[in-house]
Design goal:
single chain; 423 residues; mainly alpha; Ribosomal Protein S8, Chain: A, domain 1; Hypothetical protein af1432; 4 domains; 3-stranded mixed β-sheet
Length: 423
């Protein structure tokens, strides 16, 4: 047994010695190759010094510079290729985000066009609505605040700039048409009852909208205001549907790019709240004032304030709300406007400015959101020009339906050249 172990050790030692010999041979070869490489390097350096009349240090410097130049060119090419690749990839990714967001925001129903028209089966019913010497129709118009048109056959039209009043009138009229007791007292009772029911409906609609976009624990007073959107349209697009659509689009974009989803969600939900709030000023100003009264955080208020670029963008969330609003409003079929009316609005804005003394010309830009006025410098000074721009802005904002705040730029240029040159 011991003899076998001793033999194994001898064999192992023999193998180790053979491996050591091989390693020594390899080391000798490596040393030889190293010496050969070093010799070639020295020969190359001497040749460079001889050919270029350079010192050894200068030759080394030139070699390094050439090497760095080659490396820099290669790096520049790589960077350029990567930039092109990133640009193509970035554009493609941006398209995917936008398209996917639109897909997620697309609703299962189209916007409804709110029309205040009540159809009647028999013309005799109109007599009951008019009443003796017109007392019923006068009572109805006074109670609802709308104008009633009975001229068209088979139709009763209700006219008012306030769409909530029109909706109350429409619902009340449908009830009265089924009632045989149409008299002033009954009309006032039905209108009052309808107005109360509509307030409840608007509160429910506001809660449904908030829950649909996953916003909870809002102040209870805000739900009826949100619900008013159901009965408000903008260029034929229902405001509640528009708000729901752009909120879905905006939150999806925010999720894709890592923005604050909660700020975008609330910014989208309240971006047009000013359109259903009573008061003086643009819907942007009214919406901002409302949110401030309820002490909403500044990022949310700014998102509402900046969604029409009335104020420079302060965050990526504000940009997202602006983009989502544009996508929802601009998609085919969302809104409509007669091209003739659109052109007429721009013409009317320019005409308003030209009616002021000292104005030489006026031009409407940006779909009527900016008006540039050319001032005669001999007629108005700088202070008067500033006052005039304010007056024009106020009149245009009151008389024209333009989203956001109309920007008026008054240009007054005075030149004095002496001596005058003659050809």
């Amino acid at each position: 047994m011991a003899t076998n172990t001793q033999q194994d050790l001898i064999q192992l030692e023999k193998k180790l010695l053979e491996r050591q010999d091989k390693l020594d041979d390899l080391r000798d070869k490596l040393d030889t190759e190293r010496e050969s490489i070093e010799k070639k390097r020295l020969d190359y350096t001497k040749k460079l010094e001889k050919v270029a009349s350079m010192s050894r240090e200068d030759a080394n410097k030139q070699i390094l510079e050439e090497t760095e130049k080659d490396a820099s060119e290669m790096m520049a090419k790589i960077i350029k290729d990567k930039e092109e690749e990133a640009k193509i990839t970035g554009e493609k990714k941006a398209q995917e985000i936008i398209l996917d967001s639109i897909k997620h925001g697309a609703l299962k129903f189209i916007p409804e066009y709110t029309v205040s028209v009540v159809r009647i089966a028999e013309e005799d019913i109109k007599g009951r609505i008019i009443g003796k010497e017109g007392r019923n129709i006068r009572a109805f118009e006074q109670a609802t605040g709308v104008d009633v048109d009975l001229d068209e056959e088979g139709i009763i039209r209700l006219s008012s700039f306030d769409q909530i009043k029109r909706e109350v009138a429409r619902r009340a009229l449908e009830i009265l048409l089924k009632d045989t007791r149409v008299q002033p007292f009954r009309i006032e009772e039905v209108v009052k009852q309808t107005r109360t029911e509509l307030e409840k409906i608007m509160s429910d609609e506001g809660q449904k909208l908030a829950q649909e976009v996953k916003v909870f624990n809002l102040p209870s007073d805000l739900y009826p205001i949100l619900g008013r959107m159901k009965f408000r349209t903008s260029y034929g697009q229902n405001l509640l549907v528009h708000t729901l659509e752009l909120t879905k689009i905006g939150t999806h974009i925010a999720a894709e790019i890592g923005a604050n989803e909660d700020v975008v969600r609330l910014g989208c939900l309240f971006h047009d709240i000013g359109k259903v709030v009573e008061g003086e000023g643009s819907h942007v100003t009214l919406g901002v004032d409302l949110l401030k009264r309820y002490s909403f955080p500044d990022p949310i208020i700014n998102a509402v304030w900046e969604h029409h670029e009335d104020k420079p963008f302060s965050s990526v969330e504000s940009v997202i709300v602006h983009i989502a609003d544009a996508i929802s409003a601009a998609r085919p079929g969302a809104r409509y406007e007669d091209i003739e009316k659109y052109g007429q609005r721009l013409t009317d804005m320019e005409k308003i400015a030209k009616n002021y003394e000292g104005v030489e010309d006026a031009y409407a830009f940006e779909a009527g959101r900016e008006l540039r006025v050319i001032i005669n410098p001999g007629r108005l000074n700088d202070a008067e020009t500033t006052v005039l721009a304010r007056k024009i802005q106020e009149e245009v904002s009151k008389s024209q339906a333009v989203p956001g705040v109309v920007k008026v730029t008054a240009i007054r240029e005075f030149r004095s050249v002496f001596p005058e040159t003659t050809s």
